[in-house]
Amino acid sequence: MKLLNAINRGTLLVAALLFLGCNQPEAPTTAATTEAEQTADFTQVIPTLHGITKHWNSGNLDEFLTVYDSAATFMLPTGPVGVKEMKGYYQEAFTTDGTPTSTLSFDSLEVKPLGKEHALVLGRYTLTNQDSTKQSGRYTLVMENTDGSWHILHDHSN
Fold first, then answer.
1. In the predicted model, is pLDDT for residue 24 greater than 50?
2. Boundaries of each DUF4440 domain copy (predicted)?
3. What is the dihedral angle through the alpha carbons of 83, 85, 91, 92, rounded to the nearest 10 degrees?
4. Which CATH number applies to 41-157: 1.10.285.10, 1.10.357.20, 3.10.450.50, 3.90.1150.10?
């Protein structure tokens, strides 16, 4: 009788564990999957930047500036300025009568994600003048992905 009671208790325990195991809710989506689904496509940062060089090189400064967020800042030796002031700086320093005095290219680009929708971009620009002389410098950009496209929030070029 004692043996029968022990077997019955053991059977009940196994049955209870099986019942509880079978009735667990579905495992929630893992945090990694959720983050991956919500993370911007960082592989599009570099093509975005290379794409705007054609606007600079064709003298379409307004189209070049569309990659900048409307509230973006640009660092000058005197301090940060907005997009309107940046446009004036570019027109004065790098165009003659609306025509670019140099062609623009980027290289040494490195993208470092800063969360799900932001990136720090390090790179080098080269401006090649009509007489083939070159001016080059380094830059750091803070970019944000909004509605599937990348925009510059801050530009620190030297």
1. no
2. 54-152
3. -160
4. 3.10.450.50
